[in-house]
Amino acid sequence: EPEVTQTPSHQVTQMGQEVILRCVPISNHLYFYWYRQILGQKVEFLVSFYNNEISEKSEIFDDQFSVERPDGSNFTLKIRSTKLEDSAMYFCASGRIAGGPTEQFFGPGTRLTVL
Amino acid sequence: AQTVTQSQPEMSVQEAETVTLSCTYDTSENNYYLFWYKQPPSRQMILVIRQEAYKQQNATENRFSVNFQKAAKSFSLKISDSQLGDTAMYFCAFMKQGDNFNKFYFGSGTKLNVKP
């Protein structure tokens, strides 16, 4: 069964450094998402992406964040200058159909630790 | 704004017994969907069960069933005949109907330990 994959599983970085989190969505999916979960808190929506552009973003997704789908298979989340508070688990998800109770398929997550 | 609350950070249950995980939500929407996702250790989140708010009948999937109380804004998950493989983090989630990009609002999760 196809799965969403994410790399790396754990990323450690210094404050102020740029990080890129990578996701490979399921191949025939059209909608892509990033969520994050700070330890002990809720899973929060960051951004959705469709047709090569951002369709919605949350307040968390400020100018330090960007997403792209560079080659038609990968979907990346870039944090330009990491802060301590960016330490969290980042989940990628993909889905086929909008406007209905579509099942989103989630990756296993990347744990980002900012020192 | 939508909020989802899971008030039980961690629960334990003996194998073969029944356990109920609680979830409440707050919304002004009338049409929406509710979900339970399961995340086994070091694995992906996978869908366990979903409920359309317009349906009065509670959803069931094998050993998993929900108690959906729309007026009370409550959506609990019952796991019958618990198995060791049910050990996981369980997330309750909300999605507005007609939200074209299907954004989830999640709770903070309940860690379920099934003991042999």
Write structural notes for this entry.
- The complex is a heterodimer of chains A (115) and B (116).
- Chain A has one domain: Immunoglobulin-like (Sandwich).
- Chain A is mainly β and 115 residues long.
- Helices cover 0% and strands 50% of the residues of chain A.
- In chain A, the strands form two sheets. In chain A, strands 2, 4, 5, 6, 9, 10 and 11 form a seven-stranded mixed beta sheet that branches. A four-stranded antiparallel beta sheet of chain A has the order 1-3-8-7, with no helix packed on it.
- Chain B is mostly beta strands.
- Chain B has a single domain, classed as Sandwich (Immunoglobulin-like).
- Chain B is built from no helices and twelve strands.
- In chain B, strand 8 and strand 9 form a beta hairpin.
- Chain B starts with a strand and ends with a strand.
- The model of chain B has no long low-confidence stretch (mean pLDDT 93).
- The interface between A and B is medium-sized, with 28 and 28 residues.
What sort of overall outline of chain B do the alpha carbons produce when their principal axes are compared? globular
- Which CATH architecture of chain A is right? Sandwich
CATH fold descriptor of chain A: Immunoglobulin-like
How large is the radius of gyration of chain B?
A: 14 Å
Beta-strand percent range of chain A: over 45%
Outline type of chain A: globular
- Tell me the total number of β-strands of chain A: 11
SS class of chain B: mainly beta
Protein chains sharing the most extensive interface: A-B, 28 and 28 residues
Which descriptors apply to this entry?
heterodimer; A: 115 residues; mainly beta; Immunoglobulin-like; seven-stranded mixed β-sheet; four-stranded antiparallel β-sheet; 0% helix; globular; B: 116 residues; six-stranded mixed β-sheet; 12 strands
In short:
Chain A is an all-beta fold. Helices cover 0% and strands 50% of the residues of chain A.
